[in-house]
Amino acid sequence: MHDTVPEVYHLDLSKCDQRPFYSYQGRIGRATFITWNVILMFCCLALLLLSYLVFSQTNKTDWVQFIFWLQEYANPSNIFFYLYNAFIWYFITVFTIKRVHDMGYSGWLALLNIVPILNILFLFWLVMKKGQLQENVYGAPRLTKGWESLVAYATVIIGVFLLLIFVSAFSQALRF
Fold first, then answer.
1. What's the pTM?
2. 80-to-54, 55, 70 alpha-carbon distances in Å
3. Quick check: 127 and 160 in contact, CB under 8 A?
4. Which runs of E-coded beta strand occur in the chain?
5. How far apart are the first and last CA of the chain?
6. Among 31, 60, 146, 159, which is least packed, fewest CB within 10 Å?
């Protein structure tokens, strides 16, 4: 009788992907994907607030005016609207392409981000499915940094907590 020992894959750190985050080539794991999307979200919020403080003609301390300014800002005749959206979509697409590369699929799957309803299911799939441990046609796996894992875990924990609050508040509202 032969005992089989499972083969353990050892990650060769010299082969790890070191490409910059803004390149669509290469791979990123789940934690890196979550972390860089959270960073993108905060950058976008900061960019919106900065735009409001610089370009708004209203009282800068009135946050109700900020909501009205956002509606005006989203006017398709505003060039900043297009630049802002191009910035967001570029990075969302880059992060998605790198994530599907990590699973061994073509970057063309990133087009699922523009299909309503399906894009939400696609996002869950990107976050839940493990990437390939070994090198694939898109390169070697990228080593997830410790701070990226920390941000990703905190994001998931806070997200679950906020979801529970939302469900609780929604169920309370249905009782009345």
1. 0.78
2. 12, 11, 12
3. no
4. none
5. 68
6. 146
